[in-house]
């Protein structure tokens, strides 16, 4: 199995994770938004990779400006998840 197939197949468990997490209603809202932004990262990375290959004849990782632009959404996702859980932790500590 090549890496592209594995990448595509990994989307389904992640969508299941999001579905259950959303339905549970127990995830901090900001963290949940961060998990959804990760889908945005994937949606941007795929066309960016195709553009890099067609326009520059290189892999996305070798076109710095394009790779960095796509990776911004991964960074944003991570920040939102961390801030969401941090906020929930602080709220929980204040309740005690």
Please provide a written account of the structure.
This protein has 96 residues and is an all-alpha fold. The protein has one domain (27-95). The chain is 85% helix and 0% strand. The longest helix has 32 residues, at 64-95.
Topology (elements, then pairings):
Blueprint (H helix, E strand, L loop, with lengths): L2 H22 L4 H28 L7 H32 L1
Helix pairs in contact: 2-3
InterPro entries: DUF3593
Organism: Lusitaniella coriacea LEGE 07157
Protein name: DUF3593 domain-containing protein
Features:
DUF3593 domain-containing protein; 96 residues; 85% helix; single chain; membrane; DUF3593; transmembrane; mainly alpha
Please tally the β strands and state the result.
0
Mean pLDDT: 94
Integer count of domains: 1
Shape: elongated
Largest sheet: none
The whole-angstrom Rg is 17 Å
In quaternary terms, these chains amount to single chain
Q: What is the CA–CA distance across the termini? A: 50 Å
Task: Classify the beta-strand content into a percent band.
Answer: under 5%
> Order of helices and strands, N to C?
HHH
Helix segment count? 3
* Helix coverage percent: over 70%
Low-pLDDT regions:
none
Which class best fits the helix and strand makeup? mainly alpha
């Amino acid at each position: 199995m090549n890496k592209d197939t594995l990448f595509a197949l990994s989307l389904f468990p992640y969508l299941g994770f999001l579905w259950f997490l959303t339905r549970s209603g127990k995830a901090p809202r900001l963290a949940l938004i961060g998990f959804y932004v990760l889908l945005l990262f994937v949606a941007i990375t795929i066309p960016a990779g195709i553009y890099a290959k067609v326009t520059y004849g290189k892999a996305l990782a070798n076109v710095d400006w394009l790779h960095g632009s796509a990776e911004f959404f991964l960074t944003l996702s991570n920040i939102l998840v961390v801030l969401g859980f941090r906020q929930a932790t602080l709220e929980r500590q204040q309740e005690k």
